[in-house]
Specification:
Blueprint: E1 4-11, H1 18-30, E2 36-43, H2 50-60, E3 68-69, H3 76-90, E4 95-98, H4 107-119, E5 124-128, H5 137-151, E6 163-167, H6 168-175, H7 178-181, H8 189-199, E7 206-208, H9 221-239, H10 243-246
Parallel strand pairs: 1-2, 1-4, 2-3, 5-7
Antiparallel strand pairs: 4-6, 5-6
Length: 258
């Protein structure tokens, strides 16, 4: 059955890699001509030429796109949150497919991996990919423990879960939940959505996406700490337990870079 799919693509200072990313996307959507894909590239007020590159490569590859540029830098969580609300209200697609826009990521593989879920009418699916940053191992393992013990979720490594699929039904339900509706942290929206979906009874399959590379230089220590603290706070809100009860690693560092 043909579906309309909104491909949500947040970016911040990714101008140099967008040619490859849009080529990957073009190849991915061409493999599924039965579906109607529309791209929603989002520029979070980049300081390079990201927005210009978005427009250029979509035109060159003849990709159907509706562009958006924030008037100020909001961070990825608010950028994606506001995009979902805007797209649901104005376009009402059958599915939302959000994926990382990094130059070291294979967006074609993401589209191919999620297409069967679209065709089968699945409401939610989360993609995770490998990471190799040695500094993150302790916090990652601690987070995997928390998710398993507190929420019964296994295999979900939050910072690697940048590719996600939601049906219109699931997205409509999730955006109406107070925790999601009022979400204003800089990090963790991609974690809050599937965890709330799980609490609401949606099936949340976690699938591996074996593609792309991992560049630890893109994840300095302060960014890692800020992200994992946000993840712990999300679980805290869902369980009613204090963050420090959930994780001995929890702390509140200074603001971290995007």
């Amino acid at each position: 059955m043909p579906r309309t799919v909104a491909v949500v693509l947040p970016a911040f200072n990714e101008a140099d890699g967008l040619k490859k990313s849009f080529l990957n996307i073009r190849n991915g959507i061409r493999a599924f001509p039965e579906h109607d894909f529309k791209l929603f590239p989002l520029d979070d007020m980049s300081t390079d030429k990201t927005f210009d590159a978005m427009v250029r490569w979509c035109a060159d590859y003849k990709l159907p796109a509706i562009f958006h540029r924030n008037e100020k830098n909001l961070g990825i969580a608010r950028t994606v949150h506001e995009a979902y609300v805007r797209i649901l209200d104005k376009h009402k697609p059958d599915y939302f497919l959000k994926t990382d826009f990094d130059a070291d990521f294979d967006q074609e593989a993401v589209i191919r991996r999620f297409a069967p879920f679209i065709e089968n009418g699945m409401d939610v699916a989360i993609g995770v990919r490998p990471d190799e940053n040695a500094y993150e191992i302790e916090r990652r393992d601690d987070m995997l423990r928390i998710l398993k013990e507190e929420l019964g979720i296994t295999g979900f490594n939050p910072p690697s879960a940048g590719s996600q699929l939601y049906s219109r039904k699931a997205m409509t339900t999730l955006l109406d939940q107070p925790m999601i509706r009022d979400y204003n942290r800089r990090w963790g929206f991609d974690v809050a959505l599937p965890l709330v979906a799980k609490k609401l009874g949606f099936g949340v399959p976690v699938v591996k996406i074996e593609n792309g590379s991992y560049d630890p230089k893109r994840r300095p220590r302060e960014k890692v700490d800020a992200q994992y603290n946000a993840y712990v706070e999300i679980v805290s809100q869902l369980t009613g337990k204090k963050p420090a009860e959930l994780s001995t690693f929890y702390n509140i560092p200074p603001s971290a870079p995007e």
